[in-house]
Amino acid sequence: MKTALITGTSKGIGLETALAFGRAGYKVFATMRNPAMADDFRQKINTESLDISISEMDVDSDASVKQCINGIIQKHGQIDVLVNNAGIERHGSIEELAMDDFKAIMETNYFGVLRCTKTLIPQMRKNRKGCIINVASVAGHISNSPLGAYAASKFALEAVSEALAQEVKPFNIRVAIVEPGIINTQMANDLSVDGNSIYPHSKRMAGLFSASLQTPTPPTLVADKILEIAESNTWKLRHPVGPDAEPFIQWRRSLTDEEWVDWNAANDDDWYEAVQNTFGLDAR
């Protein structure tokens, strides 16, 4: 039986990914910071008789990651697939966002992935097989306010994943980056307006997300793509997911850096009109 370890499974993409792998016949190790909050998840596992074990693991902690992953390996043997999904979001202007928020984002979204990956690579390298799937974002290609800190973590994740893929391919370890667009998750719905900010960007982006979520893309779409990558033999590195993901990435590539800065620095009326004309979304 194939095995998969998935981080950040308490809700959203991580939860749906764990269920997708369980339904596909995998033995799943679903990790999260607070398993006490997973009653609904446990009920689904029991109702569907899925081989999913919930474990406590805080990807921000070296000790927690090593204890959890090494314990699983010692008890159950090898892990075939690692899905680094755990992530957090903080938003605000560069000037106004607290340094602690910048550090927290990088600790989870970047260093958390490194902790889990570095702990598992020796086993995968020894076995000369494995699959590591890192959940990044369209924000790993597109940086705009008020998501600068979040984008920085995803840009970093993209870069380290690309380097990792080069290092481990000779050992038959596949690396894939999944890049969701705007997905109907709690994280996306929580993008809020900072009424005290001197910058207009949080209001604009909250409006854009809200308009996009009027026709929501479910997290199951991302979960299905992650499972598809694991089940395939593809060596493709990047996988945009969602109806807006590839269009967003290609649209940004069509602009010069200076055009991109000007687009986001425009006054409110011009920005909202540009969003309407470009995406057909009323973000007001």
Keyword list:
284 residues; alpha/beta; Rossmann fold; seven-stranded parallel β-sheet; 11 helices; 7 strands; globular
Question: Which helices and strands appear, and what pairs or packs with what?
Answer:
Elements: E1 3-6, H1 12-23, E2 27-32, H2 39-48, E3 52-56, H3 62-76, E4 81-84, H4 99-127, E5 130-135, H5 148-168, E6 173-180, H6 186-189, H7 201-212, H8 219-231, E7 238-241, H9 245-253, H10 257-265, H11 268-279
Protein name: Short-chain dehydrogenase/reductase SDR
Family: Belongs to the short-chain dehydrogenases/reductases (SDR) family.
InterPro entries: NAD(P)-bd_dom_sf, Sc_DH/Rdtase_CS, SDR_fam, SDR_oxidoreductase
What does this structure look like?
The protein is globular. The protein is α/β, with parallel strands linked by helices. It has 11 helices and 7 strands. The chain starts with a strand and ends in a 5-residue tail after the last helix. α1 (12-23) links the parallel β1 and β2 (27-32). The model has no long low-confidence stretch (mean pLDDT 93). It has one domain (3-192, 217-250): Rossmann fold, CATH 3.40.50. It has a 7-stranded parallel sheet, with helices on both faces. Pfam families: adh_short. One of its GO terms (molecular function) is oxidoreductase activity. InterPro entries: NAD(P)-bd_dom_sf, Sc_DH/Rdtase_CS, SDR_fam, SDR_oxidoreductase. Belongs to the short-chain dehydrogenases/reductases (SDR) family.
